[in-house]
Amino acid sequence: MPVRELDVTGLHCPLPILRTRALLDQMALGEEVIVHATDPASVIDFKHFCNTTDNALIAHETRPDPAHGALFVYHIRRGG
């Protein structure tokens, strides 16, 4: 199953979560998405989102990004 990607860079809370939720709602169970965000609050938001839904946070990574300071990458699997 191919992995989808979602770019929410430049958006601030709550938009990264809202856009991710909207995409996950269209995806099949077990399908995965990689989300790219720049909002530092997204670290807490995505962990909380996955802990309170059936979606699984498979991995989280922070990368340097010259334009935004940091790029936060989340790998999420759609749950049921």
UniProtKB/TrEMBL annotation:
Q: Name one GO molecular function term.
A: transferase activity
Q: Which UniProt keywords apply?
A: Transferase
Q: Any keyword Transferase?
A: yes
Question: What is the superkingdom listed in this entry's lineage?
Answer: Bacteria
Outline the extent of the UPF0033 domain.
6-30
Which InterPro entries does this chain map to? TusA-like, TusA-like_sf
Cross-referenced SUPFAM superfamilies: SirA-like (SSF64307)
Q: Which PANTHER family match?
A: SULFUR CARRIER PROTEIN YEDF-RELATED
Family indicated by similarity: Belongs to the sulfur carrier protein TusA family.
Query: How is this protein named in the record?
Result: Sulfurtransferase TusA family protein
